[in-house]
Amino acid sequence: MVLMEVKKLSVVLIGSFLNAMAMNLFLIPANVYASGFTGIAQLLSKILSTTSFHFSTGILLLLLNIPVTILGWLKVGKSFTLYSFISVFLSSFFLEIIPVKQVSHDILLNAVFGGVIAAVGIGWTLKWGASTGGLDIVAMILSRMKDKPVGSYIFILNSIIILTAGLLYGWEKALYTLVALYTSTKVIDTIHTKNEKLTAMIVTKKGEELKKAIHARLVRGITAIPAKGAFTNENKDIMMIVITRYELFDLERIIKDVDPQAFTNIIETTGIFGFFRKD
After folding, report:
1. pTM
2. What confidence score (pLDDT) does residue 151 get?
3. Domains, the chain, ranges and CATH?
4. Among the residues of the chain, which ranges form H helices?
């Protein structure tokens, strides 16, 4: 258990470093904006640089995430929110210590490489049960309040960043920001998953133990279906459970701890009808 937490922290650390490197070496020097709260912090830093009140992107990113972290702690989940804030804190730290330096003068290369490098860090962080904070937490809370897909809220908030960048600094910057967002989204989808909800089909001989372990960690309903192995003729259970993509890491750990021999099929769920617990 301790080793797993160390691995998770290591992934969050590496992800934060990659995110900061993408910002300071590619996106910030080219005036191309990132997604989410990082992009908002970039815009605010740029606007404030024209006044007597100047704050770096790293400091603003941390300040923006403090109230969101408190809300996430109460509404989303303590473990997820804690690791998300650690990710934000480390990103802010690396943004402060990595110098802003222009690697390339080609704005398209900056947009693409910045988007890819940031997405690798974000994708790994998501895969290990955390997030880069800010927008993910806000979108999850709004989704639970209105019962609409998280992706729609992320799209709206990112659209605001693009429009603001276009209005303030020219539509060329906004279009290259769109390139960076598209690139990062595709890479994140490849590393993790693009779907908000997933269906896990778990074939196990330890159905009762697995059901208790899942209920102890996740607030999700489970459908148990009696089954029999076609080759071995052994009696088994198929446990069907619908989860959010943020719970995938925890479910994988539970299955590995209770029944390492279980066969699990993860299916991307495009929609559900009926009751799905949102908290």
Report:
1. 0.72
2. 55
3. 2-191 (no CATH), 197-269 (3.30.70.120)
4. 2-22, 36-48, 57-75, 78-97, 107-127, 135-146, 150-169, 171-191, 207-217, 248-258
